[in-house]
Structure formats: structure tokens, C-alpha cells
Design goal:
alpha/beta, TIM Barrel, Immunoglobulin-like, 4 domains, 6-stranded antiparallel beta sheet, 21 helices, 41 strands, globular, Ulvan_degrading_GH, hydrolase activity, Galactose-bd-like_sf, hydrolase
């Protein structure tokens, strides 16, 4: 008993430690931030203060300003980007953000990519062409996409150091002059289409690769994948990657740091090695665009979203940013989050949460919503809108309940930001094998984008191995050729420059590997690092110059490696990992996603059930000790039941419904085994759901258009079926009923209210007292038994729906709200937006609604 009491106190102290590590004042980094599109830069101090105060009250930690195209009829209010008036309102924004405990980031330009007025032909993006038998430069003529008024112009050459150095001078003479600084400057994903050259490319190529590219022009132009063509294209891509890194990323970061700005960079989409490019940033940023195809029951995906066109989010792509951060010791990993989850006016909070949870399991800990358009508070509904859904702002139907999602994210990110990576495996990214394949992007280059991983990541042995590692429950990071140089070996394993330690390095089945990189692996192996080659040693050195000689050197290094005890070549990677003591979370194979981290002496798991395969089971964690569970949705900590398994190990009982998440914290010590008692017949009956058979009253409350109908129905039902006009209603409707607890059953300590299908958010009261708000799948709330009466319980559920049904009416009556320049408003297929033809979407409480007793064993 004393031991149990001691461990209980230890658990409480651990929980208190976590709480104390969270500042009592708002932690701006732990809270979600948002993209904030300044429409036409038609902004003013009064409205900025009003909006920032609303953002702060809702629980946002900061804003990322992106000047963008404007609104028709407001031309006189447009402010020239970086002009004196613009700088004044920007300075006001930073000051007000500081007052409210909010941060401010800034895109270095308008729209995207970098470019605009002042970008001359010499600075602009280039492509190669052949003239008179030689390679020469030609302009791509790509213009800045979605520019703010006055921001039109050519996109810069991202392979040219002189172009970026000239480009930032505009900010030296404007932004740098004011004392109010953004926290970070930002570069969007690489969307410089067709750009594959720079004016001095041939000189750089000769200096870096040792030969004249024109001397191998026939191999460069060959698309039949001959050996020489492959080698020359590897050299070509290697040069592009180095120029992007050395010519754009490093000079830009150097400039930003000189002015005390941090750098947020979206490296994806570029033709470079994403790991190296992300590593240069203070805050590497990935992207979650569209809806993942989770098998969570009840999770809706917009049927009009075109997967073939836009792709779906993938955690393996996200891990390029988090791996770079883990290896380089960058505490924050951000994400552009929730872009085009569904059509305008049709996105629910229950769709957002699983996408955020997937990001967390991939190592992201600094969420940016995409996003909120600047809309003057006086502007009539629906306000100013950005063409790309999703809108998280004050004019959105999600706004009244957005603080619930914000608090959930803040609780999660507080823990994720204050813990360190705890991964066992470093897996080498063989980019030269990718460069040996035919490119599928514009300009004949490999653009490593997050949207279509099926084009470049998943087909490669690297992607296939990583996919298996993820699904089988291994924790890993990626490592590049360049980052191999910074690894050292300690008694604990392979150590990165940031102090992250890994048990071993895995080299997936690889054909081409630079001899310098194999030398680095030999260096590490001689120091005791365990190196595992999946299936084979690499066969060739990449690149054309002295290929045969360098390949011979590569094979000689490989022969040396085979003689070292710390090197393994295996035909069965996963058996080898098991023999080497690599930790595996076997329960991940049941459909659970997770990330494992460490906080002081505690191992921390974030676990997300993003499938329909797991609900409850006994699981064995790779970490051992005293296990507590923290529910970030309910903000509750509990101790889990523990038992010994047949092998003598310890198992914990985890109940996690599809759509739910939790933190499992494993503290030092031996958890007391709590063998569950056998259930009595009364207990078994108590586990059965209790139906609510009485009629329901349905009453329309506040919304658009105003309705006052009140009807009685046999059970929960979509309100759009109740009256002719109900299909246009957007707002809140009250569902109420009464029920008795059935007699003859053992009383449970807690009951679970299962609301079934909710469209979209349900505020619940029982016997006049608030129980909570259900806004995510599964729509469940916990009710303490003492809140229930034996008879005459009154249940009231106020449900708020989407704004889609009202927009169906509004777009017919007021089509003039679509008054934006550039692309105006489009639907999810990028066609002109037209809600007038929409069908009414189900709204309200669809049920079934049941009450489930939770037995004392914790099994339900």
C-alpha cells in the first residue's frame, strides 16, 4: 500500500511538473497561429486592434501576414507594400501583438513566390534551352502568384545568389528601418514552375562537377535512361540542389539573422535535398493540404476534392521537416494546416482535428491555420474571403467554438514543444537514386513536393521501407549526405549535433551512393556505430566525372565495411532491427499512430487513433515504468490499469476510440499490477448502452434566416427535414428530452454520453448544468454518476451547424458578395464558386444518442 501511495504521489508530481512547465500567461508558441491574408493591404490600425483582440481571446498565439490581392470597391484603401503607410500599420500590428502576447511573422513579398516590382530580367527565374548546339538561359516569365496591388512582377531566380541579395535590399531600406520587427520572415513552398537554370549555371556546373555540361549535351538531352544520361542528370540535379542551398537559402537566412529575424521556410516542392534545406531554417515548415483518407467512422471527406490532381497529406513527407529539426536541434516544427479540407462554408472542426493529430505524430509542434482573411469588422457577412478554403476567422461558422480546438492544440503543443525526440533509427535518404529516375515535374526536374509523394517518395525503396517502419511501430528520422558529416558516436549510440541519439543507421536498398558518404559511414562504423544495409551495399558512385574510378573506390570502401563487426548487410531488415534491440511499439500495427519523446526522465507518447481498427486492448510499451494517461481534449490525467503478460512483461489497458488521442507518460518506477476482478452479471449489464426512448423536442434558436419553429420528433433527426425553410438555416437548434436510469443495474461511477452523428458542434446540459461541448469524433462526453438522477433527467443539446445551407440561399439572393480581384472565389475544383445549386447538408443531432456506464475496471 505504501508503494502504491508513493507512486501515486509521484504521478501527481509529474503532472504538476508538466503544469508548471506551462507558463500561467499565454504561451504564444504553444498556441496555434494563423496565416492572415491582408486583402489588398486595405488595413487600418483600428480594425487591426479589433481583430487581434478577437484572435487573442479565441486562443490564437500569433499571425503570419501575407499581403494578397484586394477587394473590388476598396481601391482607395489599398496600401503600397512596404510604403510608409504600410510600415506604420505593420508596426502597429507588432506593437498590438506584443501587448496581447501574440507574435507576428511576415512573408517577404506579396503572394508567392518571391518576386514583384524591381525584379529585372537578370534577377528573374530561368530555364535552359539549346541554341546553336549549346545550352543557354531563357526567361520562364513566371509572375508572382496572387500578388497584392502593386506587387506584380517576375519571380526571382532561386538559384542565383545575386538575385536574392538584390531582392532583400528592398527590405533593408524599408522594413529594417522600423524598430518593430516580425518574429520571423517566411518563404512559401517552392512553386517556381519550369525554372531549371540560372545564368552562370554552366560555370557553376564546371566548378562543382569537374566537366563542361555542353560536352555531354547528347546525354543531357537523352530521355531514354541510358547510363551516361543517368549520371549526367544526377550531376545536373546535384548542381541545382547546391545552388538552391548556397545561392538562395543560406544567403537569405544570413540576411534574416543579421536583422534579428528568425526564418520559417517551406523547402518542399524544391529540386534540392529537403533535409538540408529545412535544416537551414530556424523553423522548418511542412504542409497539410487536403484531407487524409482516415478510416475514422463518421469522418467526412469532400466528394469533390480531386485526389489525382492535388494529392493527400502524408506523414512521410512531413517527417522531412521534423527530421531536420531533430538533427539540428530546432525546437519548433511548423505546418501550413488545413488547406482545402472541404469546400467553402463546409469545413467542420471535426475534420480539422484528425489532420492536426496526424501532424503531431509526424513531429510537427507549431500549427499555423491556413487561414484567416483580413475582413473589416463592419463588413457584412460573409466578409472578405481568400480563395483557398479553410476560413478560421470571425466570419466563419467555426469561430464561436474555435477556442475549443485552440485549447486542445495548446495542450498538445505545450507537451510536444517541451520534450525531446526519442527515436532509435536514422534512415539515410538516397537522393541520388531518385535523381536516377525520370523526373515528372515541370522543366524535367525532380520537385520534392508534399502533394504527390506517389511521384517521388513512395515508389523508392526508401519510401517503401519508411512506410513499413511507420506502420510497424518504429521511431525514426531521416539523414542526408551532408548531415552524415556532423554525426559522432558515443556509448549510447550515434549522436547528432543537437544531442539526439540513435541506436543505428539504416541504409535502404540503394544503387547510387556518393563515395564521400560511404566514407562517413565507415568513419562512424569504425567508432562503433551500428550500420545496417538493407539487402545490399550500394553498387555505384553517382555522377559522370571519373565514374568508373569513383565506383571502384566505393566498392573498396564497401569491402572494408563488410569486415567491420558494427556493419550488417541483411536480407531481413526487421528481424535484424529486433536482434539489435531497436524498440518497436507493436501496438502501432493495430492502426495507432504515435510519436515517442522524452521530457526529463519521463518517456512521453502522443497516440492518435486515426483508423477504425482499434478501440481497446492491453498493449505493451517499449518504455517501462509508472504509466499515466493525459487526455488533452478533456484536460484530465488518469492512471492506467496494469497487468503482467505471459512473458513476464507489463501491459497497460488502453481505451482509445477512433478519432481520439492521448498522451501516455512513463515515469521511472515499477507500476503496481492491478489484476482486474472478474465481472459480475450486474457489471456486464452495466456495460450495455442505455437507449433514450422518450420523444425529443426540437427548437430553432439563433441563426440565419430567423426561424422560430418548434417540433416534437420520436428521435434525433437532421433539422433540414423538419420544415421547408429549415434546409436554409445556419445557426443553433436545441434538442431536448428526458430519461430515467434503468432499475436493476449496478451504478457506475461514470457514464459516457454518446451523441452519435453530430452536425457539427453540440453544447450539452444535463438537469440545467453544463456537461461540456462535443466538437470532434467520437462525439462523446463523460458524465459523473452524481450528476444523474434515478428518474426525470433532462437532457438539452444545442447543436450548431455549418454555414453551407444559408450560403445556398444567400448566394442566390446576393451574388455580389463575390467581389475579389485575381482568382475571386472558386470552389474546391478551382471553378467559379456557385453555392446556389447546393443540396442542403444534414444538420443537427442525427444520433443515435445513448448513455453507456463505464465500469470500475476501466475497460470501457
Amino acid at each position: 500500500m505504501k508503494r502504491c501511495l508513493f507512486m501515486l504521489i509521484l504521478t501527481l508530481l509529474t503532472t504538476i511538473s508538466w503544469a508548471q512547465s506551462t507558463p500561467t500567461l499565454a504561451n504564444q508558441h504553444a498556441k496555434p497561429w494563423t496565416y492572415w491574408w491582408w486583402m489588398g493591404n486595405a488595413v487600418n490600425e483600428k480594425d487591426i486592434t479589433n481583430l487581434l483582440e478577437q484572435f487573442s481571446k479565441a486562443g490564437l498565439g500569433g499571425v503570419h501576414i501575407i499581403p494578397i490581392y484586394g477587394v473590388k470597391g476598396y481601391e482607395r484603401q489599398f496600401l503600397p507594400f512596404l510604403g510608409d503607410r504600410w510600415l506604420a500599420v505593420f508596426a502597429h500590428t507588432v506593437r498590438e501583438g506584443r501587448r496581447l502576447g501574440m507574435g507576428v511573422d511576415l512573408t517577404m513579398g506579396t503572394g508567392w513566390p518571391f518576386g514583384g516590382p524591381g525584379v529585372s530580367s537578370a534577377m528573374a527565374a530561368k530555364e535552359w534551352k539549346v541554341e546553336n548546339g549549346t545550352l543557354v538561359s531563357a526567361l520562364t516569365n513566371q509572375q508572382v502568384k496572387r500578388p497584392a496591388p502593386g506587387g506584380q512582377g517576375l519571380v526571382i531566380d532561386y538559384f542565383s545568389r545575386s538575385a536574392i541579395e538584390t531582392y532583400v535590399k528592398r527590405f533593408d531600406s524599408t522594413l529594417a528601418r522600423i524598430p518593430e520587427k516580425p518574429r520571423a520572415v517566411y518563404n512559401d513552398s517552392y512553386e517556381v514552375f519550369g525554372a531549371n537554370w540560372t545564368d552562370n549555371f554552366l560555370t557553376e556546373f564546371r566548378n562543382r562537377r569537374g566537366y563542361d555540361l555542353n560536352s555531354q549535351l547528347s546525354a543531357f538531352l537523352d530521355t531514354t535512361q541510358t547510363q551516361n544520361s543517368i549520371l549526367v542528370h544526377q550531376d545536373y540535379h546535384q548542381t541545382l540542389a547546391e545552388l538552391l542551398h548556397d545561392g538562395f537559402t543560406k544567403p537569405w537566412v544570413t540576411w534574416a539573422h543579421r536583422h534579428n529575424y528568425k526564418v520559417r521556410n517551406q523547402a518542399h516542392g524544391s529540386p534540392g535535398n529537403l533535409i538540408d534545406l529545412y535544416t537551414e531554417a530556424d523553423i522548418p515548415e511542412t504542409e497539410s493540404f487536403g484531407s487524409s483518407r482516415f478510416s475514422i467512422p463518421g469522418l467526412r471527406v469532400d466528394e469533390q476534392y480531386e485526389v489525382d490532381r492535388f494529392g493527400t497529406p502524408n506523414p512521410l513527407a512531413m517527417k522531412f521537416a521534423s527530421s531536420a529539426a531533430n538533427l539540428a536541434g530546432k525546437p519548433l516544427v511548423s505546418s501550413e494546416t488545413g488547406t482545402w479540407l472541404a469546400n467553402h462554408f463546409q469545413v467542420s472542426l471535426s475534420q480539422v482535428k484528425p489532420q492536426v493529430d496526424e501532424l503531431f505524430t509526424a513531429g510537427v509542434n507549431h500549427v499555423f491555420y491556413h487561414g484567416i482573411p483580413y475582413s473589416p469588422p463592419a463588413e457584412a457577412w460573409p466578409g472578405w474571403l481568400f480563395y483557398a478554403s479553410t476560413n478560421y476567422g470571425p466570419t466563419s461558422h467555426v469561430w464561436p467554438h474555435l477556442p475549443l480546438l485552440n485549447r486542445y492544440i495548446e495542450r498538445c503543443q505545450t507537451r510536444l514543444q517541451r520534450s525531446k525526440p526519442d527515436n532509435d533509427v536514422l534512415i539515410y535518404f538516397p537522393i541520388h537514386d531518385l535523381w536516377a529516375t525520370r523526373a515528372k515535374s515541370a522543366g524535367g526536374i525532380h520537385q520534392l513536393e508534399v502533394h504527390h509523394v506517389e511521384r517521388w517518395l513512395l515508389p523508392q525503396p526508401f519510401g517503401q521501407v519508411c512506410d513499413l517502419l511507420l506502420k510497424r511501430g518504429y521511431s525514426f528520422d531521416y539523414v542526408s549526405d551532408d548531415l552524415l558529416k556532423g554525426l559522432t558516436v558515443t556509448k549510447q549510440g550515434v549522436r547528432s549535433a543537437s544531442g539526439a541519439v540513435y541506436k543505428l543507421i539504416v541504409v535502404p536498398r540503394t544503387v547510387y551512393l556518393p563515395e564521400q558518404s560511404l566514407r562517413q559511414l565507415e568513419r562512424l562504423a569504425r567508432s562503433g556505430a551500428r550500420i545496417v544495409f538493407d539487402g545490399q551495399l550500394p553498387e555505384q558512385a553517382p555522377g559522370f566525372q571519373n565514374h568508373a574510378k569513383r565506383t571502384a573506390e566505393l566498392k573498396q570502401i564497401g569491402a572494408t565495411l563488410q569486415q567491420l563487426n558494427s556493419v550488417t548487410i541483411t536480407a531481413d531488415l526487421f528481424s535484424t532491427l529486433g536482434q539489435m534491440g531497436v524498440r518497436v511499439e507493436s501496438w502501432a500495427a493495430e492502426g495507432l499512430s504515435f510519436i515517442r519523446k522524452r521530457h526529463a526522465d519521463t518517456t512521453q507518447y502522443f497516440v492518435a487513433n486515426l483508423s477504425n481498427r482499434f478501440r481497446q486492448n492491453w498493449i505493451t510499451l517499449a518504455a517501462s515504468g509508472w504509466v499515466s494517461r493525459y487526455d488533452p481534449l478533456a484536460n484530465q490525467t488518469d492512471r492506467l490499469p496494469v497487468r503482467k503478460n505471459k512473458q513476464g512483461g507489463v501491459e497497460v489497458f488502453l481505451h482509445l476510440e477512433p478519432g481520439q488521442t492521448c498522451f501516455l507518460n512513463v515515469s521511472p518506477g515499477t507500476a503496481p499490477v492491478t489484476t482486474p476482478a472478474s465481472q459480475s452479471e450486474a457489471d456486464k449489464l452495466a456495460d450495455q448502452p442505455i437507449a433514450l426512448p422518450n420523444p425529443w423536442q426540437v427548437q430553432f434558436l439563433q441563426g440565419r434566416p430567423a426561424l422560430t419553429a418548434s417540433v416534437t420528433v420520436p428521435g434525433p433527426v437532421s433539422w433540414v427535414t423538419l420544415t421547408d425553410s429549415a434546409g436554409f438555416f445556419s445557426g443553433t437548434v436545441r434538442y431536448s428530452t428526458t430519461f430515467d436510469l434503468p432499475g436493476g443495474r449496478a451504478r457506475a461511477r461514470t457514464y459516457r454520453l454518446n451523441l452519435g452523428d453530430v452536425r457539427e458542434v453540440a453544447d450539452v446540459r444535463l438537469n440545467g448544468q453544463p456537461i461540456g461541448t462535443a466538437w470532434s469524433i467520437p462525439f462523446q462526453l463523460s458524465i459523473p454518476a452524481d450528476r444523474l438522477k434515478p428518474t426525470g433527467n433532462q437532457l438539452t443539446i444545442d447543436v450548431t451547424n455549418l454555414s453551407a445551407n444559408y450560403m445556398h440561399l444567400y448566394d442566390r439572393q446576393h451574388p455580389g458578395w463575390k467581389k475579389f480581384y485575381d482568382i475571386n472565389i472558386v470552389d474546391i475544383r478551382y471553378k467559379p464558386f456557385d453555392a446556389s445549386r447546393w443540396d442542403a447538408v444534414p444538420s443537427g443531432l442525427l444520433g443515435p444518442v445513448t448513455l453507456t456506464p463505464v465500469n470500475a475496471q476501466g475497460g470501457r
